[in-house]
Amino acid sequence: MANKKLDEVISEGWAGLQEQMTDIRSAEQAVDDLNKLCLRVLASEDGEKLMKWLRTTLLEQPVAVPGSDSSYAYYREGQNSVIRDLESRILKARNM
Q1: Rounded Cα gap, residues 90 and 43, in angstroms
Q2: What would the DSSP string read from start to end of 18-81?
């Protein structure tokens, strides 16, 4: 079935390919909507408390300690990345 769809696109030339392209505005809107959602949820009094707790408990702690397995540092950095992403989304939504 996938080959049939590909054959249709190929037979239509560039016109068929252009139909397959996604509208970049919808992707940008989805990002904006997610940023606004993060702001609505996490900018409340309780959301700010949660973000403060996440920052204190996870982000402001060592990623690894001497003698720990190196994979633990990757795990911890992943946790930190989630917090940084949330903070970034909140800032972007505030600046819209």
Answers
A1: 8
A2: HHHSPPHHHHHHHHHHHHHHHHHHHSSHHHHHHHHHHIIIIITS-S--TTS-HHHHHHHHHHHH
Digitized pLDDT (tens) for each residue of the chain, 96 residues in all: 556 666 665 666 666 555 555 566 788 899 999 999 999 999 999 999 999 999 999 999 999 989 999 999 999 999 999 999 999 999 999 998
Domain enclosing residue 29, as ranges: 24-94
- Residue 31 inside a domain? The answer is yes
Asked if residue 3 is part of any domain, the answer here is: no
pTM of the predicted structure, to 2 decimals: 0.70
